Amino acid sequence: MSQADIQLQIPSVAFYIEPVRAFVGNLAQSLGFSRKRVADIQLVLDEICSNAVHHGSADATVGVKLRISIDTDALEIIVRDTGGRHSGEKNWLTHERLSEIEMNRSPSNESGHGIFIAKSLADMHKMQPNRDGGTDVRVAFRFSKPRNPEI
Ligand SMILES: Nc1ncnc2c1ncn2[C@@H]1O[C@H](COP(=O)(O)OP(=O)(O)O)[C@@H](O)[C@H]1O
Ligand SMILES: [Mg+2]
User: What are the structural domains of the chain?
Assistant: First the structure.
């Protein structure tokens, strides 16, 4: 069970990602992550939130939910969207679509690297369709040493 849970909701607009990034960066720093790891966490959060806004939201009003959990051994972040404008399958990321996306990723393309970055930098990365018709992306970053359970 997590020691602390923080829940946030932002409009599905890129403008609101930066304040969330700043908040999570400060939190990660206070939790004792190294400067480099804080930058990794912020980059992953940026990519996941941009995907939720750009691919997983039908319009600006639907919003993106974040749940940040602090555990004894890791910081976990879940980003939940409600699904994009496409009808049917393309709304959320099925495993088949994910494989297809990964197969088509090319280093020479400007876009298409967000999921790869998140998977490479997070200690755990999971994506699954949710009940709202969108995608839940779950990432975790392990602490280098166990944390004081009092905080
Ligand atoms: N939350 C999401 N909901 C629906 N589709 C998504 C979501 N996140 C990613 N995708 C799909 O995966 C593709 C790859 O995402 P990503 O690697 O971040 O590259 P990019 O965002 O530059 O296209 C996106 O183009 C989109 O089709
Ligand atoms: Mg992206």
Answer: 4-142 (3.30.565.10)
Ligand 1 atom closest to residue 113's alpha carbon, by position in its atom list? 17
Tokens 């400007």 locate to 110
Are residues 48 and 79 in contact, defined by beta-carbon separation less than 8 angstroms? yes
- The pLDDT tens digits for 5-51 are 999 999 999 999 999 999 999 999 999 999 999 999 999 999 999 99
Instruction: Choose the residue to mutate in 78, 81, 115 for probing ligand 1, maximizing ligand atoms within 8 Å of C-beta.
Output: 115
Measured over the CA atoms of residue 120, residue 124, residue 128 and residue 133, the dihedral's sign is negative
The residue to which tokens 């197969």 are assigned: 103
Instruction: Report yes or no on whether pTM surpasses 0.85.
Output: yes
